[in-house]
Design goal:
The structure is a single chain. Among the domains are: about 75-340, 3-Layer(aba) Sandwich (Rossmann fold), CATH 3.40.50; about 525-655, GMP Synthetase, Chain A, domain 3 (2-Layer Sandwich), CATH 3.30.300. The protein is about 30% helix and about 20% strand. It is built from 21 helices and 31 strands. Helix 3 (about 35-40) packs across helix 4, helix 5 packs across helix 7 and helix 6 (about 115-130) packs across helix 7. It is globular. The protein binds 5'-O-[(S)-ethoxy(hydroxy)phosphoryl]adenosine. 5'-O-[(S)-ethoxy(hydroxy)phosphoryl]adenosine binds near residues 316, 394, 418 and 533. It catalyses: acetate + ATP + CoA = acetyl-CoA + AMP + diphosphate.
Amino acid sequence: MTEQSQGPALDNLLTESRTFPPSDEFAAAANAGPDLYAAAEADREAFWAKQAERLHWDSKWDQVLDWSDAPFAKWFVGGKLNVAYNCVDRHVESGHGEQIAIHWEGEPGDTRTITYANLLAEVSKTANALTELGLQAGDRVAIYMPMIPEAIFSMLACARLGLTHSVVFGGFSAEALRSRIEDASAKLVITTDGQYRRGKPAALKPAVDEAVAQTPTIEHVLVVKRTDTEVAWTEGRDIWWSDLVDKQSDQHTPEAFDSEHPLYILYTSGTTGKPKGILHTSGGYLTQASYTHFNVFDLKPDTDVYWCTADIGWVTGHSYIVYGPLSNRVTQVVYEGTPNTPHEGRHWEIVQKYGVSIYYTAPTLIRTFMKWGKDIPAKYDLSSLRVLGSVGEPINPEAWIWYRENIGANRTPIVDTWWQTETGAIMISPLPGVTSTKPGSAQRALPGVSAKVVDDQGKEVPHGGGGYLVLDKPWPSMLRGIWGDNDRYRDTYWSRFADQGFYFAGDGAKYDNDGDIWLLGRVDDVMNVSGHRISTTEVESALVSHPTVAEAAVVGATDPTTGQGIVAFVILRGDAVDGGADAVKALRDHVAKEIGPIAKPRQVMVVPELPKTRSGKIMRRLLRDVAENRSIGDVTTLADSSVMDMISQGLNKGGSED
Ligand code: WTA
């Protein structure tokens, strides 16, 4: 592999060799059987057309796929649909208005029960409110909210009106929000007064006030009251949700939009400091989100209770809380808070309370549960669970087995789902009624999806070989570009294997001897911290924007709980005071302020020099060796090889961690 590889070593992954076939009973009742692979194999476009027919289309497409303008795909060309109608109205019309769509559980313990009929009324009222504010199809709306039902109403109201939403994770800073509003020229921000975090209300609106002070495109700020926190108010610009939405009619007729109408933009970290606005459109996106949710989780809409623990600020929340599940008439739990508030059994208490049958979470959380101990889940009745899922980073076999034994009672299939913000929906995953699962492997591309592991030259590696993960055929929920930057889109994803026309995912992978795929982590300068993508450059830019910092280099170091931890090496300016604990704390806080607390470095090491090649490129590989306490690798290409000695010595006295 390349020297950039930051993933766990394959040797660690291959310590578990058992496989787990589905029970006969599960396989017999599963939504997806082995025939699904055969159908996709026989005629890929006909297969996807059949999946698209699971949705309601106001007018049918003339062409399944137009790839003539590659890498800009068009799916279901000429078709028209309304995404929100597909997620809400049609379930009410088919007689399921009284079915619970959302069991909402607030962090302080308050609850709301929302049926599909309620959801339709709320989404309609919200759509009427956004129309009253003068918003029109194609306009962009920023949503900066905690996990409350109004966040979902807002997303669906945008979809209903053809507005393009840009959800910004509520843990991001004012600066991160500002740059995203600016990039998309959003006209409206929907937010709350505050949010509950670990049992306490924390203000949210001040960050919006700070952001929109510098974004002239914003006309209004719509504010949901969640915590009753006192907020500053700009008359004419700021509007309480209760003043505007509550008075609206609960009737609204949806309009059909083109299959390629933009549905949302979601910003994700790239290898430069500037986040990329990943653009998703309507028909193809909803087709694949819906198809994967139905088959990968084996959703039975009449009996299952589904829970995805992601935040709507990430793509998992978009595809597997909002669009996929609701299009399948799910009954789901939405939880506002952190997993250890008020106690470490909160998730299992919720599973027991609602009879959750499908649970989808991230490896970092599973490893945290492991740390808290198996006695905690053992106190609850988890017998309702029948499918478990994992997403966001490679799951180590040890965590996989712990999940199966302690949450899944050695019975439930586990689906390890590989995908990205860019892919829009799951791409590589077991099918729970078909696949004999292997702890640590996402295994193979879903029916209709094509993935390969290739070498430097783009040639597929043999079984047992490792290389780069590529997607060699277009798929319905693929990104349609980077908002406002077609060149960056081509360059980022399509230039590495331009001759072959492959999409390069940025991940390293390997085939085992059976041809199953094992993900090995990113091969670019993107870190994966608790399943969150953060670019090294973004953190470096934040650090050097601090007046005391002359230079900074950031690496992701292996971390037993979070997958990777952010380790920063900084050179202070000549006139700055020495790098004591206060200086280090100031820098960590500064990064949290610039990007958000999720990007706060685990460690900041003040060093006299950074290791550079003769051409001036920072050698991150060596810094990772230091950060992971390995003996330092080959330093022959360093301009000044004594630098590493200086760094190591500097660390021994100046390294700081808290
Ligand atoms: C990583 C999250 C291994 C991968 C849906 C990818 C995974 C990045 C898995 C995308 C998995 C996601 N096994 N690695 N099952 N799922 N990843 O855009 O490095 O937040 O490129 O999308 O997470 O992160 P993103």
